[in-house]
């Protein structure tokens, strides 16, 4: 798979995963400035924030299948080239239309490149290298997720907002060149074909589902656009099942979905991600509106869990290898649920010392769940690793929108600055209920992991 050393491959994986993941969140801290300078409407603002996510989510499975068929070098380099060029277009955009279009194209390039990064660290690797590669991938993604809003906020504070995208140009060019040097020309599945009908139907279906979750979370699921998208997603799912059943070389082999480890791992990932992302989204708002924290100070509260994930992920892999994934991952998600319950007890006047125990326990539990991805991918034949990676990342991405939408049913109203004490207490009660719901989702995900993952250690699997 590689012509250069494994360390160079890890460098490609780390930089690619970092850039792609950070652009998921870097725009968050910069949106107010972008709105003001480009005079964006609320609808345009939403599309700037979600255009990347929508394109990214709906094309992840297609990107994974292309990695299987065409090989990592072609898909990764092409995806990063599109991503980097679109970043330049975002940075130089002078209006809402060009910026939204560039964000959509940027997300498409990211969807093409990201599954290839996971194929690089799993296919043809022994357990030690697969573990090291996954730790690097998770570490890069975790740092990027935590750093994105902060980096965006700092850039717009000192420079033009376009630099939140233009900072991608130099590392983007370098990682493209490194990919051309390090990766082999073609290592895809010999004789495999791209299932074009399946690719198109899956893209439309996933776009509809992601749009419904994003739009419904913002405007309510009774909104006509959200309802129409849900109907389109349901029809697309049925159509995709029919197309794949008739395809000679389907994108997703239905037999994989009957595999206990693969299906159970995806269900666990969905619930785990929904609970965690829902908590992060509403906690950031809660810390600012209820406790009166500034945005940077609220970001600092949520930084320790990301650091805990980075530091403890290697420990989590060791525990999963030594004791088996069922107790290690399932128990870790139970710990994470306990941290969410602890965090839900926040009261007016609480400071960092009151907040840290709960958020740190959440970080420890989240780290314990990181090996889950490895076992899901190992349940699928290596020639299908790319599409499996796309499915895993799709579930990770969709879980965020799902969690925000589900918890939003309880956190129905975010009070404006200067709200009354009674309104703030209602907000606190709704947020606490949302955190408890998040804990239940994560706990159920842990139970599913404890029942479906292999009993054996990674070295025996």
From TrEMBL:
Transmembrane segments: 12-35, 47-67, 74-94, 100-123, 135-155, 161-184, 196-213, 225-243, 264-286, 298-317, 329-346, 358-377, 398-415, 435-453
Record keywords, A-Z: Cell membrane, Membrane, Transmembrane, Transmembrane helix, Transport
InterPro entries: EmrB-like, MFS, MFS_dom, MFS_trans_sf
Subcellular location: Cell membrane
Top-level division of the source organism's lineage: Bacteria
Gene Ontology terms for molecular function: transmembrane transporter activity
Annotated ranges, domain Major facilitator superfamily (MFS) profile: 9-457
Protein's recorded name: DHA2 family efflux MFS transporter permease subunit
Membrane-protein topology: Multi-pass membrane protein
Cellular compartments per GO CC: plasma membrane
């Amino acid at each position: 798979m590689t012509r250069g050393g494994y360390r160079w491959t890890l460098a490609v994986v780390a930089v690619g995963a970092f850039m792609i993941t950070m652009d998921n969140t870097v725009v968050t801290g910069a949106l107010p400035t972008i709105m003001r300078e480009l005079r964006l409407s609320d609808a345009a603002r939403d599309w700037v924030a979600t255009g990347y996510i929508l394109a990214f989510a709906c094309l992840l499975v297609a990107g994974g299948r292309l990695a299987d068929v065409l090989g990592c070098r072609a898909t990764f380099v092409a995806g990063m080239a599109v991503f980097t060029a679109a970043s330049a277009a975002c940075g130089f955009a002078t209006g809402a239309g060009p910026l939204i279009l560039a964000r959509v194209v940027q997300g498409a390039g990211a969807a093409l490149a990201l599954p290839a990064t996971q194929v690089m660290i799993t296919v043809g690797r022994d357990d030690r290298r697969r573990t090291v590669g996954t730790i690097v991938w998770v570490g890069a993604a975790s740092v990027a997720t935590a750093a994105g809003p902060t980096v965006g906020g700092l850039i717009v504070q000192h420079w033009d907002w376009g630099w939140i995208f233009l900072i991608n140009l130099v590392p983007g060019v370098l990682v493209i060149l490194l990919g051309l040097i390090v990766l082999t020309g073609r290592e895809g599945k010999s004789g495999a074909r791209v299932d074009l009908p399946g690719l198109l139907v899956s893209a439309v279906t996933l776009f509809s589902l992601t749009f419904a979750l994003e739009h419904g979370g913002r405007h309510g699921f009774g909104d006509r656009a959200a309802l129409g998208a849900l109907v389109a997603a349901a029809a697309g799912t049925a159509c995709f099942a029919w197309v794949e059943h008739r395809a000679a070389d389907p994108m997703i082999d239905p037999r994989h979905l009957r595999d206990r480890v693969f299906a159970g791992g995806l269900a666990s990932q969905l619930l785990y991600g929904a609970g965690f992302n829902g908590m992060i989204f509403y906690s950031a708002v809660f810390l600012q509106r209820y406790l009166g924290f500034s945005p940077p100070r609220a970001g600092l509260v949520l930084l320790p869990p990301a650091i805990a994930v980075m530091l403890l992920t290697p420990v989590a892999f060791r525990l999963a290898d030594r004791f088996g994934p069922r107790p290690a991952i399932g128990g870790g998600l139970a710990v994470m649920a306990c941290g969410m319950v602890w965090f839900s007890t926040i009261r007016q006047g609480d400071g960092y010392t009151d907040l840290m125990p709960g958020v740190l326990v959440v970080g420890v539990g989240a780290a314990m769940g990181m090996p889950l991805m490895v076992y899901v991918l190992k349940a699928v034949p290596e020639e299908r690793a790319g599409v499996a990676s796309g499915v895993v990342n799709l579930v990770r991405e969709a879980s965020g929108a799902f969690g925000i939408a589900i918890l939003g049913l309880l956190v129905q109203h975010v009070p404006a600055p200067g709200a009354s004490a009674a309104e703030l207490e209602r907000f606190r009660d709704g947020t606490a209920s949302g955190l408890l719901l998040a804990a239940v989702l994560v706990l159920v995900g842990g139970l599913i992991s404890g029942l479906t993952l292999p009993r054996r250690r990674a070295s025996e699997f």
